[in-house]
Every structure is written in C-alpha cells, then in structure tokens.
Amino acid sequence: MELSTVKDAFDRVTKKQKLSCSKSQEVIDQVGLEIEQTLTKIQSVDDTSFPIDLKSILAELKVKLNAIGLQSQLEGPQKELNSNLSKYLKLLEKVFNPDISKAYRNVDFDHHILNQIIASHLYRQGLFDLGDCLVNEAGEPEASALGSQFLEMYQILEAVRIKNIEPALKWISANREALKQNSTSLELKLHRLQFVEILQKKGRADALVYARTHLAPFASIHLDEIQKLMGSLLWAGKLEKSPYAELLIPAHWDNMTEELTRQFCSLLGQSYQSPLTVAIAAGVEGLPTLLKLANVMAAKKQEWQAMKQLPVPLELGKEFQFHSIFVCPVSREQASEENPPMLMPCLHVLCKQSIMKLSKSSTRSFKCPYCPADASVAQCRQLYF
Question: What is the pTM of this model?
C-alpha cells in the first residue's frame, strides 16, 4: 500500500514536470517568434529609403512581450511543480526511514581483508589508477598483483569488443589445461565468431580456408556445430536471409565477453561478480526488514544488537543464496563428509545425523521441524555444494 502511494505521488510529480516543461517551451517559442518578427521588420525597413524608427519598433516589441506575461506564465507551472515535489519528498521521508544507521550492527571488520575487497572491486571496474592509489595508501602491496591480472583481462575484453580475438586466443593457449577442467568451449566459440565475420566481409573462399585451419580440430567433438557453420557457406552474401541468420546476432559477441570474464575470474580464484557489489546489493534488499525490526524492538525497549539470530526471516533473492557452507538448523553443526546436508521431500534441508535422530530408525517416518510434512530417511537425498 505504501509503495503504491509513493508511485502515485511520483507519477503526479512526473506529470507536473512534463506540463511545466511543455508550458515553458511554449512561452519561449512565443517570445522567440515575436523577436524574429521584429528583426524581420527592422531588416525590411532598412532595405527602403524611409528612415527607421527603432524606438517605436522596440516599444511595440516591449508591449507584445508584456502582453505575453513571460514571468507569470513561467512562475505558475514551476510553483505547482515545486509544491508537488515538496509533498513527494515529505512522503518519502514518512514512508522510508532516512536514518539507516538503526539497522547497523557493530561488527569487528578485518581492515586488511576489507582493503583487499575494495581494491579488487576497483580493479574489476577498470579503475586501475584508483585501485593502485588505495593499495599504496592502505599498505596492501599483495593486492597490486590482482590489479595486473585484471588489467590483462580488460585488455583481452577490449580487443574482443572490436572483434579482435587474437589476445583471447593467446590467453586460452597459455591456460589450456586449466580451462579443460572447466569444460568450456571458449576457443571454438571465438573461432565461430571469427568465421562468421570473415564469411560476411570476405566471402566464402576465405571463410572456408579459415574453417579448414581453425575449425577442423574441433570436428571430432563438436561435429553438429561444425556442420552448421559449413551449411552457412551456401548462403554467403545473404546470410541474414538464411536459416543461419541467428549467427549474425550481435549478442553473441556480448555473451563471449561475459563468458571470458567468468572463465578469467574462475582461473584467478575470484567470483564472477564483485563481492563488494553483492554485499551492498544484498544489504539494500534486506535493509527495509532490518529497519522495521529495529523500530519494533526499540518500541518494545528491547535490544536487538546482541541477538545471535534474527527473530524474523530475511528474505533475499535467489541470486544472493550461497551455500558453500551449510549449518544444520536443528543441531547447529556445520555439515561435513560424515554428516552431509540432506534434502527432504518438503525441500527443507537438515544434516544427516539430525534426520537419523528425528526418524529414530531408518524405516520410521518423521515430521519436518519446519513444516508438518512427513518424511522418511529413504526419501531424503544428499546435497552436494
């Protein structure tokens, strides 16, 4: 309900802004027209032998401009816009708590790790000078090595964006064994993109030569893909009208830069997304719940800072759900190879030992501690993170 109220207020401000701009432009155009007509009149009089009475002409212009009422016409819509904008800002302050410090919990941060996370984020964004400055001032020389690695990645990506695949192929060649473990077909995809470019710009003959040199080694594993590319040779010069038109979609190059980034970060032992970006995005999504909790606890004169566990669920999107470590919600013990996480039919997860204690025997059914659904040990499946 609150969000719909905010949206309605925002729509009103937007409407007033458009009306104000439209009215202002209309008045300005009207003033400009009067000035142009006066200039034309002066020029036409100047072309005759009659003396020019500039004072009377300018006086006439002044009367016309006064009749338009430039100031009053501009002030009216602007005042309405300012009034609606002021009401909108007050509504935002009422609906959204501007003091987010209430949701802050005192946490002892490791400044060394925090500096490295920020430096890594700057390097990921291509802000290498700023990253180097932070590394030098914070005294984190080991983080500079990551900067040089991300610099190499950016150089490769910039080359791919202008459809130069040579730096990317050189990097793949240098890291071929490591990339094999990731089961990626980056090299084939790069050659496919280059093949299509040659077919479009140079023709069938050059594309066939390129295919024999660079695509032939992949024929034994990716025969379907190679056959598809060979079929496109028949449509040289009119590929966009052929059954193979999807090969020309520009998004293929964008997808390639994304996959290169993922693979590059994987070999560096880094996540694809910046940890700082993920942490801030998750914090922003969970902030309304935390603020509401802080207000409720304050009203009850209870302190939530010392709580080991939040009394309310903090729902985040699936993109923020990571399970590299699983702690059983029943036993509070971390999962291990001897006590792995198990998925129950109701889709809740407990550790194996907790399930065995709840069932009391491998054949007896038990109730999930989070919902009334029945389950048995045989129905539970081990999860692998």
Answer: 0.59
